[in-house]
Amino acid sequence: MDQEVDSFISFMLGDEYFAISVTKVLNILQLVQITRVPTAPDYMKGVINLRGTVLPIIDIRMKFGMEPIQYQRDTVILVLNVQIENECVDAGILVDSVKEVFEINTTEILPPPGIGSKYKSKFIEGIYKMSDEKFVMILDIDKIFSSEEVVMLKDSVESEESTNAEQIN
Amino acid sequence: MMDNFQTKFLEEASDLVNQLEQALLTLEQDTENPALVDSIFRIMHSLKGGGGMFGFENITNFTHKLENMYDLVRQKKLKVSREMLDITFESADHITSMLNDDGSKTQQISANEEILNKRIDAVLVGDTPNNNINIVDNIESQPLKTESQITTYYIRLKPYEGIQKNGTNPFFLLDELAGLGKNKINIFDSNIPDFENFVFDETYVWWEIILATDKGIDEIKDVFIFVEDDCELEIKEICKADIFPMEGIEPLLNCRHDFPFDLDKIKTLVDTILALEKAKQESNSKNKNAGDEHIKKFAKESSISGIRVASEKIDSLMNLVSELITTQAGLNLFADNHKDNELTRITENLENISRQLRDTTFSITLIPIDYLVVRFKRLVRDLSKEVGKEIEFEARGAETELDKSLIEGISEPLMHILRNSIDHGIETSEERIAKGKNPQGKIILQAYYSGSQVVIAVTDDGKGMDLEKIKQKAIDRGLIKSDVQLSNKEILDLIFLPGFSTSDKITNISGRGVGMDVVKRKVSDIRGIVSVSTEKDEGTTITIKLPLTLSIIDGMLVRISDTDYIIPLSVIDTIFAVEHEKIKKSFNNIITIEGVQYPFYYLRDEFNIEGEAPLREEIIMVKYEDKKIGIVVDHITGEYQAVLKPLGKLYRQQDIFSGASILGDGTVALVVDTHKIINQFTKYNDN
Predict the structure, then answer these.
(1) Does the N-terminal or the C-terminal CB of chain B have fewer CB atoms within 10 Å?
(2) Do residues B94 and B54 make contact, with C-beta atoms less than 8 angstroms apart?
């Protein structure tokens, strides 16, 4: 077996942990003023100026069908390089906070859960169990960006329940 | 790895092939012309020499044979024949494929070469079927639009002080004049008083303009129609020719601040040159024919001095200029906030320079449409032969310049339109004769500026489109319901729908069907609009309208709530301030201003912007087709030079914004495409 080691960056959306391969992340930015683009879907927050280029900003929580993000002290923009229809595009996602960069053996990544689980496996590359027994969901960011609509990360049956659950949060 | 010199040669060689095609097309009209044979010979020679020097032996060997052939023509041992022209055209293609060969097609190329060589040999021994057919006969020589239709005028404009009190900005007059043709403007500002005596809305300067235009003197007078009483105006004709290209004229036209143009000197020089030209023309009049103009043009073009610059360098120059403009905006903002006279002065000077630098750099990236025309001529020639139709192709306004990237983007759609015309539009000679038309069909490509747009129209005199047939087809294909009532324009628009086809058989030339929707998409990729008009048995015109610039626009910075937007100045007609109450009380989005009713869009509502509207708002009247439509915003900040940045793939649905621009304070403003806004919201509200 290959002992391949990959690096991931973990962040929080609400009280859940997610991770993206560091090769996808270009930059972490402090929150700046975002110019809203009218007529765009709500999860597309607008654009910012990133050193002279125009960078689109996505509220990844809304894209996943969660509550819109509340800007807080820890809110940051992760600048990602994503592939959409064979084209590389830079885009920023808003996350509640960035946790850490960690290295893991690819063999330790568990396959995405099957049917009936809480999360839609299509957008998840795998799951990793951290030392503190917490689970991190490793996202397939290209797939998420390629789908135009809100992707409902959670399965449709559960999504009704989960919106209720989120209201409690 | 290919070294630098080789790359250079490849660039040069493809230029030469281009020139070769152009010369051949002219030679086809005028087979006896020794000057053209000479220039073809010269091109072959350059190709041969260059090929040898940079290690393209195959090109050297091949062109050597062609060169031999034209050498014989030069020595009058051989006459130009149809076969010879066909061979040379194919050779041009062959050379191109040799130049582009990456080693994968070598076999095919050498097979092709063998065939061509055999045919050349046959010509050399005089063994071709139609050796001596004079092909000039069947082409009616058509007088070309000569440059002599241009007249050069001298205009002196001395506004009386106080002209600006009537709301006239003399600069607009100058701009309008400049739009009529090539010009030089001389400015006299010695009357500007000291700062203490300076009244800001007085006009102290006056101008002299030399203008070469194909418009009449009346059109020039029209420019000044509203200011006749407010200025001293003198318009004189210098001569009935365009003086700008004349040799030795340039130093006389150089603007020398506060010294008038030396009209006498200019006149003397112009008269001498014209007299010389006339004498030359008379001596040539024996063999004067349609080719003459072509040759002159050809000779002129080859003598144009210029330098070859890699397009990446131009792109990076454009980027730097864009950065400069953005930085300039930052400096302007800073200077405004600091109220330091010295700083303001420097900033204004710098802004002036930036603006000029922007315009000059921008003009570098402009390429005349002529660049494409050669290719189109070739296409029409080859395709019409293939389908057995007689078609004449004419390009008007080929000197119209377009941005480099637009030229690249427009080439394919235009090819497609031409193919459609040849394949489906123009009838066969027999059909045309039966209809009482000229057996030879005609396709005209026309390009011209219209306001801030460039219009390119392709017109054929073919059979036109059958509206009933189009509608029926659309119904058959399930694109529309059979009971809908459509205007003629709406029916024509159906051809732009994906998967639409009007031709019963799909040919390998145009295979319409996949055609017009692709044309439409490609044109809208470069922010253009396609439209079509047709008349049964009269022909079809397809018109493409393109924006002049792609990257930097003059805009009006406006604000709604806490977001900035930019509206291109070119579409703005007037701006009024209105009470919010009046807008709230308006019925059906119609507002009456100064007795005129205007439809309007309230952007706060259309954009779903929350929050309280200000008591006074601004309504911007924008030009939309032949109407004026209002767009309501909170506040007008002022004019702004916007460097257009793409909004990116993720926002491609939001095409009511043509892009974004970064403001001096680092925030982003959205550039509004008012045309699309009006279109989209009209449709939206109709539904």
Answers:
(1) N
(2) no
